[in-house]
Structures are given as structure tokens and as C-alpha cells.
Amino acid sequence: MTLQGRGFTYGPPKKTHEDTQHDLAASADWYRKQLSWPVTFDPIHRRLVLRTGEMLDAVVMPDWLARQVATDLELSLLAGPICIDATETWWTFFIQPGQKKGTDVPPELRRCRVHVVPSGGQSIVPCHQDTHYWRVAPKLNGTLPPWTAVMGTARRVLSYLEP
């Protein structure tokens, strides 16, 4: 709550640049220690960067498709961590690693701009406590869905969204 009076505003203190950097560094540490995710803090761009390929992979899709895919995965109890970018335009589904080798994104999904972050690539993740940008937040001892579950669900959803 913020109170105002006589030219002063009383409320929680504003975060400084150093506070934000500390929060991001602490969040990167949490991802590494608690989930074993390869997340680092990029101090130049002030963001958290996850490297794909060893511990997990990532599938990115536009929000109009991702919203229903996430709902269907949740109803099937197959949803893993899903984050939403700052523009709320792109959603990233984190999946089990290594399952996509030699598997292409189906053409109908490629046309919708669904893509996979290549192994060794980078994905931006929000702070672990930032619930606004996590549709499904990562959980301790949580599981990641397989490639087939996310791609199969996306294909099914697309088939009933298309005219």
C-alpha cells in the first residue's frame, strides 16, 4: 500500500539497479541448485538465460496457439514448466531433453511459427518467483513432458482451431 501526504509518498521502497541484479543472480542460483537447470545471469542485459540441450529442451509457440495447448496439457496432467515472454506474445514449453533429435517440427506447426530452441541454444526465463510470466512454474522434483506430448497436443489443437 502506498500513502501520500505533503509531497511525500510512503510505501515499499523502489528497487534499485543493484537490488534487481541481486534478485536475478539469486534466481539463477535457485534454478541451478534446486532444479539443476543451466541458468546464468546476464548482467549486461539484466536477464536470466537458460541453455538447452542437456537438462531440458524448449519449444516456443505464439500465444494464440500456446494458450490452448497449455490448457490441454494441464487437463491431461502432462504440463511441465511454461513461461511467457515479456511481450506476452511467445510461450516457451520446457520438455525432456534429447527427444527431438532427428525430429522436425511438423510443417503445419512450422507455418504457425512453432519452433524448437536448438541444443546448446538459449532461452530467456523469468525469475522463479515471478508468477506473472509463468503459466506453469517449475516445481522441485517436477517432471518435464516429452516432445511427443507437446507436439501432439499442438497438432490436435491446431486442427480444431483452423477453419
Based on the model shown, name its key terms.
163 residues, alpha+beta, 5-stranded antiparallel β-sheet, 3-stranded antiparallel β-sheet, 4 helices, 10 strands, Bifunctional DNA primase/polymerase, N-terminal
How would you portray this structure in words?
The chain is α+β, with helices and mostly antiparallel strands and 163 residues long. It has one domain (14-21, 43-155). 31% of the residues lie in helices and 24% in strands. The protein contains four helices and ten strands. It has helices at 17-35, 63-75, 107-110, 147-161, and strands spanning 3-5, 8-10, 39-42, 47-51, 57-62, 82-84, 90-95, 115-116, 122-125, 134-136. Strands 8-5-7-6-10 form a five-stranded antiparallel β-sheet. Strands 3-4-9 form a three-stranded antiparallel β-sheet. Helix 2 crosses helix 4 (147-161). 27% of the residues are buried. The model has no long low-confidence stretch (mean pLDDT 88). It comes from Saccharopolyspora antimicrobica. This is Bifunctional DNA primase/polymerase, N-terminal.
Q: Compute the number of structural domains.
A: 1
- Overall 3D geometry? globular
Structural class: alpha+beta
The helix tally amounts to: 4
* Low-pLDDT residue spans: none
End-to-end span in angstroms?
48 Å
* Mean pLDDT rating: 88
Rg calculated over all Cα atoms: 18 Å
Which strand order does the major sheet show?
8-5-7-6-10
| Share of residues in strands | 15-25%
Helical residue percent?
Answer: 25-40%
The major pleated sheet works out as: 5 strands, antiparallel
Q: Tally of extended strands?
A: 10
H/E series, N to C?
A: EEHEEEHEEHEEEH
